Amino acid sequence: MSRIIMHIDFNSYFASVEQQANPHLRGKAIAVAGKAGGDINRSVVTTASREAKARGVKTAMATWQAKKICPELIIIPSDPQKYGDITARLLTVCRKYADDLEQFSTDEVFIDVTGGAGNYFGASMMALMIRRDLKTACGSVCTVSIGIAPNKLVAKLASESVKPNGLTVVRPSDVEDFVKSRPLADFCGIGPRMEKRLAEIGVTSVATLRTLPRAQLINLFKSYGTWLADAAHGLATDVLEDDDAAPKSIGHSYTFPHDPHTIPEVKKNLLAMCDRVAWRLRGQHFVASRVSVYVRYGDFGSDGCAKLLNIPISDGLTISQNAWALLSPRLDLNRGVRLIGISVSDFKTIKLPVSLFRKDRRMQRVVVALDRVQTKFGQDSWHRASTTPLPDGLSHGFVTN
Ligand SMILES: [Mg+2]
Questions:
Q1: Quick check: 139 and 1 in contact, CB under 8 A?
Q2: Domains in the chain: ranges and CATH
Q3: Is 358 or 71 the better-scoring residue by pLDDT?
Q4: Do 239 and 197 meet the contact criterion of CB atoms below 8 Å apart?
């Protein structure tokens, strides 16, 4: 099922907070710069108010330069405590509506509202309620732009597209067209340097980016090329990273450098991912009762399904066996598998399930020992023999443990 992600972004954040706090500053060209006690005339603009932006004042501009183009500009020293307080209110309001929340910066959050909103209409209504609650919590001068889309990448592009105070909804069926209409510089992940490199190879728009073969992008930019090829179509498997709350799901996805057409290739990578997921799961002392798999094909079609288990699990092999049992009957290898994703959810907190069977107890000891190795030497310190890369041209029967 497609996710519904909302990106909420304060407009001209620090400047709006200052205008909210001081009515005399409202409607005026102001810029927040430097910090209290510092020489603000020798610093740079952190945020310009809407009125100052209209006069050409930009972020990172030297204050003397900003004053030159806008002589009536009022420069206010930065007051982090004030902004921190409003950020905390933003988070409190958003948490009320979010299945999952990621604070992206001081004035931006992503929330997953897939479960809470149910559909895109519900999400639009929710956005209006969030805006109402924020007005009560933070004041009417602090406005937000909101974007709603199937992933973080497009949600951020959407909120960016109408400022200030916009609400932009991009349903899955509109993603291709919407993304095409956006300038490359607006993509979170395409900075000025990458924009320049792309321009050097003739890519100045999403439309031209789409004309480049995926293989060429990967050749030029390695794994970033994969990201670019997907981003050109508004595709991303970005997950919300919630620092505060316990996660509701733990997942991992893998994009193949080429579209594989063989079962061993898919199965091998699935197992390797499940080992990683399992390690993160055990790191939080969780066992999971739900396994979900997701596949995306070379033709951009996708499929996914989930299963509730009777006995919660926490080891990579069992997760992988369940995932494969779900995936294999519906896998269409003729379409070429571009990406596979796995996630586990429905957690219970437990140290380790106590098993009555001797074979399982032995396996648990192995898992505990491997976790110690991984904790000490890092995530990639061990892997199963069956997940080692196959040398070119060599294939062997797949061993599952
Ligand atoms: Mg902002």
A1: no
A2: 5-12+90-175 (3.30.70.270), 13-81 (3.40.1170.60), 179-231 (1.10.150.20), 249-387 (3.30.1490.100)
A3: 71
A4: no
Q: Which residues are catalytically annotated?
A: 108
Nearest to 18 by CA among 84, 58, 78: 78
At residue 143, the 3 state secondary structure works out as coil
Percent of the chain with pLDDT over 70: 91
Angle at 373 between CA 370 and CA 374, to 5 degrees: 90
The Å distance, Cα 164 to ligand 1 centre, comes to 9
Confidence of residue 392 (pLDDT cuts 50, 70, 90): very low
Give 109 Cα–ligand 1 centroid separation in angstroms: 10
What is the Å distance from ligand 1's center to 107 Cα?
5
As to burial, measured by CB atoms within 10 angstroms (0-12 exposed, 13-18 middle, 19+ buried), residue 147 is: buried
Phi/psi at 223 (5° precision): -70, -25
pLDDT value at position 395?
32
Token output for 118 = 């149910």
Q: 55 CA to middle of ligand 1, Å?
A: 19
CA of 141 relative to ligand 1 center, distance in Å: 14
Cis bond before residue 164 (omega within 30° of 0): yes
**Strand 249-255 vs strand 108-112: parallel, antiparallel, or unpaired?**
unpaired
Rg (CA), the chain: 25
